Structure formats: C-alpha cells, structure tokens
Amino acid sequence: MASEQVDDRGAPRGGITETTTGTAAPPEEGYRRGLGSRQIQMIAIGGAIGTGLFLGAGKAITKAGPSLILAYAVAGTVIFFIMRALGELLMYRPVSGSFSEYAREFLGPFFGFATGWTYWLFWVVTGITEVTAAATYVQYWWPAVPQWVSALVFTLVLYCANLISVKIFGELEFWFSMIKVTAIIGMILIGVGVLTLGFSDAGDTASMTLLWADGGFFPKGIGGTLMTLQIVMFSFLAVELVGVTAGESVNPEKTLPRAVNTVPWRIALFYVGALLVILSVVSWTAFEPGTSPFVAAFGKIGLPAGAAIVNFVVLTAALSSCNSGMYSTGRMLRDLAMNRQGPKLFTRLTANGLPLLGTSVSAALMTVGVWINYQWPSKAFDYVVAFATISGMWAWIMILAAHIRYRRAADRGRLPQSSFKAPCAPYASWISLAFIGSVVVLMGFDPDSRVSLYGAPVWAAGLVVAYFVLKARDPDTFRREETATKGNRRP
Length: 491
Description:
Elements: E1 17-18, E2 24-25, H1 37-46, H2 51-64, H3 68-92, H4 99-107, H5 109-138, H6 147-161, H7 166-197, H8 210-213, H9 221-226, H10 229-236, H11 241-247, H12 252-261, H13 263-281, H14 293-300, H15 304-338, H16 356-366, H17 368-375, H18 380-411, H19 427-443, H20 447-473, H21 475-488
Antiparallel strand pairs: 1-2
C-alpha cells in the first residue's frame, strides 16, 4: 500500500500478520520497492569489495606479510559457512527482518531487540568508517586539505543523495558496484601481465618468489598473522546483506541460493586472487599502513596514472558503502519502531516512501566521524574499524546461534526442513562461532582494537536497560513475541 495508507504506528491496519509458521512477521507496508534483479545481483557482488580490502589491507600486509593471503582464505571459509547458515534460515522463513527476526524466534525477544539495534549501530559506525576512508583517499590528490573537512563534505553530500527515490538509489549503487568489480578484475589482469610479460618498472623483479623471498611466507610469525584477523573480518562485514536482499526478492527460492553460492568465488577472486597478484608484483616490504595496497602497487610498477585511477575507484567504493549505510539505517530504525522497539516517530514515511527521519538521525550520528577525523586523523580508521567489527560480528553470532537452534528443531521434526541446507551443519556453525570468539579475544591484545571491547559492555548495558523499560511500558509487544517464539519451538 502507499505511504498515506499506513497508520500513525506504521503498521498496516490489520495489525501484525502471521506467517505460515505462526510467527508474528513485521509489516512491510509503505515502501516503494524499485530494486530490480539486475541491481540486486550487482549490489550483492559489489558488497564483497570495500574499505577493508582497499585500505585496511595495507596495514594488514605490514603486520603479516604474504601470510595475509592465508588469513583471508581461512576467514573466507568461515564467512561461507555463515552465509550458508543464513541461507538455510531464509529458505525456511524469508523475512526482511532477517537477523533480528531469527534471533527473536529461536533465542528470545531480548536477542531480537538487541540484534536490531546493534545492527543499526553497525551501519552507523560503518558509515563513519567509509567516510574516514574516503577522506584518507582525498589526501592522495590534496594532502593540504584537512581530513575532517573531506569527511564533513562527504557526509553532507551522501545525506542529500539519500533524499532520492529508491529506484535511483538502486541504479546508482549498480554502477558503483560495476566500477568496483571492473576495477578489481582490471588490476588483476594488469598484475598478471606484469608477471608473465615483464613490462613496467616492476617487470624485472616481479615474481611469485616474492611471496617467500623477504623473510618467508610468515615474516612476522604466526602471531602476526593472527593479529590481522580483526582487519580481515572487517573486510567481510556486510556480506550478510546479500541474504537480506534476497529475502525480499520476488523469487527467493532461486535468487537466494545463487547469491549465497557466489560467496566463495567472490572471496577467491577479489581477496585471495587480488592479494596474490599484488604481493607477487611488489614485495610486501614496500607497503605502508594507511595506504591502499592497490594504489601503492601501481605506483611501484611505474604507472602513476593507474594509481590515480585506482584511488578514484576506491574512493567511489567507500562512498558507495557509506551511501548504502545511510539507506539501511533509516529502514532499520523504521522496522524497530514498527515493532514498538523504537520511537514511534520513526515509522513515518515521505510521499516517496522514504524513512527520512530515521535517515536524518543516522546521518547526524555519522558526523561523529568528522570529530574523530579532527581529533585523531592518523588513528581514525583503526578506531572505527574496531567498533564496526565488534558490532557487525554480533549479527553473525546471532545467525549461527539461531541456525543451531533451528537445525536442532528441524532434525527433531518440530519445524519444517529448509530446502537449502547448510553443509556440515551444525558442526560448521559451532566451528564458526569458535572462530569469531577467538577473533574477539585477539582484539583484546591489539591497542587499537581494544577500545571497542571497552565500548561493547557499555552498549550492552544500555540495551538491557532499554529493553526492560520498553517491556514495562508496553508488555504486550514482548509478550506477543514470546508467544510466537514458543509456538515455533513447540515440544
């Protein structure tokens, strides 16, 4: 229905609908969905390429050397298991709420509430991360421009871009993703040309032996490789949005498996393949923290124009991700409000079907990134990456925990089996949970990452207080969720 047909609470007049499993599903009325299959697929592919690869990999290379390739391969395998777990859940019951809905159904109402707000926080912090990265890229051309100025300009421009209709948003994101994908493939082909044909300034020294020539494959030891896992995991954050997009598709039975099953080759090509070529063309010792390895590689092989082009591409990639973050946060706030888990005023839509108020509040919070860039320009990226990683991994934890509970119920015949079963389940989900837990522990040993572990308990305490306050004010909301949850976990 159109936005003017939605009542003050944002829910359809008939109330909350019931799914075939008996679980209360959040209403999705009011939005004008204009994302076609072509746009969704390209956004899904482009979601695997972001700041973590283009900028964060520079610091990771200096910490681990060529062994970073192995870190990406191992972490990528875990990400595939997470995505297959999400895929099984979505094929069991495709809902737009995704993580929070499954957490609410299989783990309890508090976890659904906490997951929704934490994932919103993740996108706000990710927006700060991407704006920070974009401001860093500007330094390549105009080093005299203060980093915080660039961050402020980008935040304002992207906020204005989100006043456009969803159809135009989808088209812009399609071309942003096309630029990223084309650029990565082009960089790999050029690197392979340098290795095989020997052209450019690096042609005489480029060789795969560089992967072990300067201090071996593990020049900083196994410990150095392990300490990069936080940066590696950050690179994969938001890959789960493939499942969310597919869950809203007209034909999820076909779209979802196709989208999820592209995860392995995307990781193999964009991360493992790209780094394998770059570190074979230029020794890992030539890279520096805070500098894109792609830009640095083109500079070393004597193609300054190529470096400038790549810098423009990664700038576009960062702005694209931030733009998606602003788009997502507005919707997340509205979904929370429609479930009476957020302020009622966030349910309102514009005449074009846009959650303007939620987007505005999220964009305003993203301006915190401007202050961070002003106070600590050299540490800004590290700080926000740490916060984004810890909040983003919460969604993965909820996906895996919910999947374990679902598989147990399905195997016992209490729930219908999914048509897209995750391989090696539930053992793969348990292993993935252990891997994520080890990454959190390792973050405590990194001074730059440790700051997020200080903030996580504060955020958790705030969620607990907010949950009990809301439950006391409107017990029917959470009682309704508890009833639905028990109904799907019937003995």
